């Protein structure tokens, strides 16, 4: 097993871990952290492939994803804060107003 | 010059229509309306007279004047061009001349009407379209005029539109005419396809060729299609039903549009397209048969009508039938001659009837008239003269034209026959009978008026009686205008069959005898005690019912066309097509969206976890699918 395979395996497990967390956990903050974990998995795969093909495109893309992720979390945390102030809980099941 | 003649009445329509109606807030008074409404048609008449002298000075070479290029499509030019030759000259003189005097008459007749300005605006509009019709060089311009006079007729029949019956009569006239127009349009299409032009002089010239260079279209087909248009406008069987109902309009309208000018447009059309009909013996025969049948049928109905205007209306239908009979046997000039004399005496009769109605305060029922001769003498004398003229007493106008029609119906080498002549002669007899019946019932005998009405009987103002006198003089001497001979260089009279040559003089005597016979019959039946007419009616009760029901043609059409049409419209188009198919499809789509949304809405639980699961399943599904298929 060479380094690339190892890194890709790590990326997949990071992504899978994050996905599992999003699906299983009820705590909103934990879910957000799991989302970040999934993103990191993807980023890791990007870096790995960039390294493998010896191009810079993947590395540049990583910085882009970082910026987007930062912006996303900067929006998500205030929303969560507002929700918590409203519902007095972090449990996701309480937030079910948006139903059809 | 020609353009100016046509545009003058349009100017009158615009001035009166904008300034003297509610549209423009009734800015101007009656004197202005009268000056514009009567002045411009008179001016147009003067210009036409002037132009006829010009034409004479040019040796009767037709004048052509292009006013405007309408459209250029490929190689074809569509121009609004006017054409002035002998035939147009006669028609334009009748239209502007009789039209103008009827305008003057209307000043008195409509004096107390609240829509005085609107009436004159419509009359001028009619005159504009009628001049477009008779002066147009191309069938297209003629058709614009043709539709335009239909519109003016519709507006004027329904002039007193507060009464629903009048509005319905206008609608009936309009719709019946549309049926004929369909034929007219088809004829135009066929002609344009074959010849590439719609100019009538060119079409006539094209049909003069025979052999290899003959037009690639059957003259009879074109002839029949155009004649279908003429049956609509000129109220021939089977489209005659609108004309008697059109009497709902004011009486000057009946005189101008539904007797003197518009209804003769069909006759003008056939005479104008004579080049086609000369090559179409089958179409000519159809015209002759329809014409004589209409003449006969309408005359029988006219004998029993009790409404003074209805009698005249059926008489008009009958006389139009005579004109078509003349056209059918190739005597185009004679038909136009009858158009002219008919315009004189029928306008006089209608205006006289209008004067009677005016005197009786709106009463139109012959059974409530009688004994008016002494009370309104001018009306009586003029009415009597024109009655004698239409009946064909010599030397009045109707005698000459009707005699020539009878002669050519018998002797023309292009379709004249004893049968046509026999029916026409019988119709002439009935014409004399019903006209003198009308004269007797209205003016002679004992008064049957309501006392209240009788008290108010008065002679009409001079603007009406003056016009009546003028028209009566024209009815008396109009026969001496040798219209057929004048038109002969353009519309040659048909050759006469050798074997019939020596019947000319006996026929002259016969037609006088027919008129006198009708007079004697009417005098015997209606001049005597009232019981005599009653007994006659009781004896032929079935026939009388049949005739006064106008052969129940209206009912037949109602039953045959009206009801199925209503049924199809209601059941098929409204209930099935509109409500079920169209509305059903739209409602169904909306309901589908609603129900689908309700179903899918259940998925939207607001549980973020469920969404995450669904996304996961979706991604896995997509991955599996792409793995399987790539």
Structure description:
- Chain A is mainly alpha-helical.
- The longest helix of chain A is centred in the C-terminal third of the chain and has 31 residues, at 57-87.
- In chain A, α1 (3-24) packs antiparallel against α2 and α2 runs antiparallel to α3 (57-87).
- Helices cover 79% and strands 0% of the residues of chain A.
- Chain A has helices at residues 3-24, 28-53, 57-87.
- Chain B has 630 residues and is mainly α.
- Chain B has 26 helices and two strands.
- Chain B has helices at 2-19, 30-57, 86-109, 116-135, 139-157, 164-195, 200-208, 219-233, 242-245, 251-260, 265-272, 274-278, 281-302, 308-328, 332-359, 377-391, 397-411, 418-443, 451-455, 462-477, 483-487, 504-527, 530-539, 541-548, 553-601, 608-629; strands at 63-73, 76-84.
- Chain B has a two-stranded antiparallel ribbon.
- The radius of gyration of chain B is 30 Å and the shape is globular.
- The chains are: A mainly alpha (100), B mainly alpha (630).
- The interface between A and B is medium-sized, with 13 and 13 residues.
Give the structure's gist in a few sentences:
Chain A is mainly α. Chain A has helices at residues 3-24, 28-53, 57-87.
**Largest protein-protein interface:** A-B, 13 and 13 residues
The major pleated sheet of chain B works out as: 2 strands, antiparallel
Distance from first to last alpha carbon of chain B? 84 Å
CATH topology of chain A: Helix Hairpins
- Structural class designation of chain A: mainly alpha
Order of helices and strands of chain B: HHEEHHHHHHHHHHHHHHHHHHHHHHHH
Low-confidence stretches of chain A: none
**String of helices and strands of chain A:** HHH
Shape of chain A: elongated
Instruction: Tell me which CATH architecture of chain A applies here.
Output: Orthogonal Bundle
Number of domains of chain A: 1
The tally of beta strands of chain A, per DSSP, is 0
């Amino acid at each position: 097993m060479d380094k690339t395979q190892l890194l890709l395996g790590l990326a997949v497990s990071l992504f899978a871990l994050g996905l599992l967390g999003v699906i299983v956990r009820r705590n909103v903050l934990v879910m957000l952290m799991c989302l970040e974990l999934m993103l990191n998995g993807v980023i890791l795969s990007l870096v790995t492939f960039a390294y493998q093909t010896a191009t810079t495109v993947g590395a540049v893309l990583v910085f882009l994803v970082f910026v987007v992720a930062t912006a996303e979390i900067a929006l998500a945390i205030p929303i969560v804060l507002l929700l918590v102030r409203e519902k007095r809980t972090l449990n996701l099941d309480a937030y079910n107003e948006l139903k059809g | 010059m020609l353009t100016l003649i046509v545009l003058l009445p349009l100017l009158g329509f615009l001035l009166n229509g904008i300034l003297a109606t509610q549209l423009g807030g009734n800015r101007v008074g009656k004197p202005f309306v009268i000056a514009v409404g009567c002045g411009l048609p008179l001016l147009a008449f003067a210009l036409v007279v002037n132009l006829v002298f010009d034409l004479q000075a040019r040796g009767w070479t037709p004048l052509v004047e292009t006013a405007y290029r309408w459209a250029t499509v490929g190689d074809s030019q569509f121009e609004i061009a006017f054409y002035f030759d002998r035939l147009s000259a006669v028609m334009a003189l009748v239209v502007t001349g009789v039209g103008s005097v009827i305008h003057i008459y209307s000043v008195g007749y409509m004096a107390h009407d609240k829509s005085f300005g609107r009436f004159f605006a419509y009359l001028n509009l009619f005159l504009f379209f009628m001049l477009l019709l008779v002066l147009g060089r191309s069938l297209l311009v003629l058709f614009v005029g043709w539709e335009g006079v239909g519109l003016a007729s519709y507006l004027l029949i329904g002039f007193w539109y507060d009464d629903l019956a009048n509005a319905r009569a206008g609608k009936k006239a309009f719709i019946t005419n549309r049926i004929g127009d369909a034929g007219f349009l088809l004829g135009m299409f066929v002609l344009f396809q074959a010849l590439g032009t719609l100019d009538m002089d060119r079409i006539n010239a094209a049909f003069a060729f025979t052999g290899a260079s003959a037009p690639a279209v059957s003259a009879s087909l074109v002839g029949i299609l155009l004649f279908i248009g003429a049956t609509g406008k000129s109220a021939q069987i089977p489209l005659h039903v609108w004309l008697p109902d059109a009497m709902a309009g004011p009486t000057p309208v009946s005189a101008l549009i539904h007797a003197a000018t518009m209804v003769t447009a069909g006759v003008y059309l056939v005479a104008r397209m004579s080049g086609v009909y000369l090559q179409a013996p089958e179409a000519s025969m159809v015209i002759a048969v329809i014409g004589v049948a209409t003449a006969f049928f309408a005359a029988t109905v006219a004998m029993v009508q009790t409404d003074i205007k209805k009698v005249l209306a059926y008489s008009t239908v009958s006389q139009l039938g005579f004109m078509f009979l003349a056209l059918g046997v190739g005597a185009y000039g004679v038909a136009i001659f009858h158009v002219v004399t008919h315009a004189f005496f029928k306008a006089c009769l209608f205006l006289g009837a209008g004067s009677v109605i005016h005197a009786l305060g709106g009463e139109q029922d012959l059974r409530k008239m009688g004994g008016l001769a002494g009370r309104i003498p001018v009306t009586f004398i003029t009415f009597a003269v024109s009655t004698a003229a239409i009946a064909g007493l010599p030397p009045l106008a109707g005698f000459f034209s009707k005699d020539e029609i009878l002669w050519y119906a018998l002797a023309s080498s292009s379709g004249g026959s004893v049968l046509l002549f026999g029916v026409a002669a019988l119709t002439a007899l009935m014409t004399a009978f019903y006209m003198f019946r009308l004269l007797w019932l209205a003016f002679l005998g004992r008064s049957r008026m309501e006392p209240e009405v009788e008290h108010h009987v008065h002679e009409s103002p001079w603007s009406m009686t003056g016009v009546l006198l003028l028209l009566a003089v024209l009815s008396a001497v109009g026969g001496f205008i040798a219209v057929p001979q004048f038109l002969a260089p353009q519309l040659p009279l048909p050759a006469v069959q050798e074997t019939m040559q020596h019947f000319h003089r006996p026929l002259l005597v016969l037609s006088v005898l027919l008129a006198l016979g009708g007079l004697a019959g009417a005098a015997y039946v209606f001049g005597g005690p009232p019981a005599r007419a009653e007994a006659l009616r009781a004896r032929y009760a079935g026939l009388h019912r049949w005739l006064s029901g106008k052969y129940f043609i209206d009912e037949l059409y109602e039953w045959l066309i009206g009801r199925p049409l209503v049924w199809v419209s209601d059941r098929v188009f409204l209930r099935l097509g509109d409500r079920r198919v169209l509305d059903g499809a739209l409602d169904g789509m909306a309901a589908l969206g609603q129900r689908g949304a309700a179903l899918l809405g259940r998925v939207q639980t607001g549980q973020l976890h469920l969404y995450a699961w669904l996304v996961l399943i979706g991604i896995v599904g997509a991955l599996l699918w792409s793995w399987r298929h790539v």
